[in-house]
Design a protein that fits this description.
This protein is of the alpha+beta class. The chain folds into 3 domains: 117 residues, Arc Repressor Mutant, subunit A; 59 residues, Arc Repressor Mutant, subunit A, CATH 1.10.10; 152 residues, no CATH class. The protein contains 20 helices and 12 strands. The strands form 4 sheets. It has a 3-stranded antiparallel beta sheet with strand order 1-3-2. A 3-stranded antiparallel beta sheet has the order 4-6-5. A 3-stranded antiparallel beta sheet has the order 7-9-8. The longest helix is centred in the first third of the chain and has 16 residues. The radius of gyration is 23 Å and the shape is flat. The chain starts with a helix and ends in a 5-residue tail after the last helix.
Length: 413
């Protein structure tokens, strides 16, 4: 597994197991620290200079205690060139100056931190197993054999699989021989989908497995580019194993684009904004009548990085992106410079950031999340927390939270 994918699964696993309280979390010490460090990096990104009290608040919101921050997290971030730590004459930390790369650039750093912390064999096997079982369920014996071929002994494999089951990291389906799948990628969807698949022949089951793997590696795939019989695609869609987003243009042209449920498991997208933006860009790449997009990622980068957050002018902007307008993701206006052409301005940058991850990595890492507000009722949890909700949390301590806000706003500094 390369460093980017290792980083993805470290972050995902940390976000999942943070909802548990168990002495067995000691097996995942490196994963917890590295995952928290990665998420802290994204919060520091573009802040440039962060006073130490504010850094402590940002860290504690992710579960990083001040002692951990000072003795473990900051030294690793400094070692990897992510921050420069500034100290006063006594050696006390006063502030940090961040050098955080893009979100994609954070993931290899997470992997480096994780490796440097010396992960246990069991947590290393967990990260490997998550990668193996993310596309589709695999027979348990195949997972065991694959882990064994990577050098893990039988005891380590047993313990790792037991821990992943206990923490709900791996799910199981099937009767008789168990099939393992990544809960993070599939959640409860797989249980419903598998009931439908049990009625298919082994040949058709393999075709579905290959199809979902293809879609998983290219989210927003035009339906006509998938080599799967229409009746099987319809069945897989009804069973929840495949999700379809239909794009309709001003000309009345309609095309379906395919996604796997993992897109919805990774983050909350109840209004389907992310899938809509991906599908519209893929329409522009494959079907636009006047001029086609060479690379959808270039468009997303331009929308995010240009000072105006605008692309254009182009004729197809006026016809192919009406769903994005209706969803309030972009604003489309006629060009005053070019007759018959239109400009498109980004409105919802959070949606575009998630789409950038999907287009560049094929998935969402879980790193580029909203900042969790510290005061109710605006407290938020990430989608993985919402899906698990296992740990008991203490009542909100209003005075303490108000104090944290004063620190964030520099009211007490």
């Amino acid at each position: 597994m390369d460093k980017t994918n290792t980083g993805i699964w470290v972050v995902r696993t940390q976000k999942h197991i943070q909802e548990y309280r168990s002495p067995h979390l000691s097996y995942y010490d490196s994963t917890i620290v590295a995952g928290q460090s990665g998420r802290l990096m994204t919060r520091l990104r573009k802040l440039e200079i962060v006073e130490y009290p504010k850094l402590q608040v940002l860290a504690s919101d992710l579960g990083i205690m001040p002692s951990q921050l000072k003795s473990i997290v900051l030294p690793h971030l400094e070692k990897n060139g992510v921050v420069d730590v500034v100290r006063d004459g006594t050696g006390a930390i006063t502030r940090v100056e961040e050098n955080v790369p893009t979100v994609e650039g954070v993931l290899p750093v997470v992997s480096e931190i994780w490796s440097g912390l010396g992960p246990t064999p069991e947590e290393t096997a967990t990260i490997e197993a998550q990668g193996m079982c993310s596309d589709f369920p695999l027979p348990e014996k195949d997972v065991r054999n694959a882990l064994s071929s990577k050098g893990f002994d039988a005891k380590t494999v047993d313990t790792s699989l037991e821990l992943q089951s206990a923490f709900g990291i791996l799910g199981t389906v099937g009767e008789g021989e168990k099939l393992l799948y990544s809960e993070y990628s599939w959640g409860e969807v797989m249980k419903k989908g598998w009931k439908w698949m049990t009625h298919l022949s082994p040949e058709y089951q393999e075709q579905i497995r290959l199809a979902t793997s293809t879609i998983n590696s290219s989210q927003g795939l035009p339906s006509e580019q998938l080599s799967l019989a229409p009746e099987l695609l319809t069945g897989a869609t009804k069973a929840g194993l495949v999700r379809t987003c239909n794009i309709t243009t001003a000309y009345g042209d309609e095309k379906p684009f395919l996604f796997t449920p993992s897109i919805g498991q990774v983050y909350s997208d109840d209004s389907d904004e992310v899938k809509t933006l991906v599908a519209c860009l893929k329409y522009g790449q494959n079907y636009s009548k006047t001029s086609r997009i060479r690379n959808p990622l270039w468009i997303v980068n331009a929308l995010l990085e240009r000072e105006s957050h605008m692309v254009g002018p182009a004729t197809d902007i006026g016809t192919d992106y009406i769903l994005l307008e209706k969803a309030g993701i972009v604003k489309v206006e006629r060009s005053t410079a070019r007759l018959g052409r239109f400009n498109m301005t980004l409105v919802k940058d959070d949606t575009a950031r998630l789409v950038k991850e999907i287009l560049s990595q094929g998935t969402v890492s879980g790193l580029d999340e909203e900042f969790a507000s510290l005061l109710p009722p605006s407290q938020m949890t990430n989608p993985e927390q919402n899906r698990i909700r296992l740990a008991k949390v203490p009542p909100a301590a209003k005075k303490a939270e108000e104090e944290l806000f004063r620190v964030l706003r520099k009211e007490n500094l």
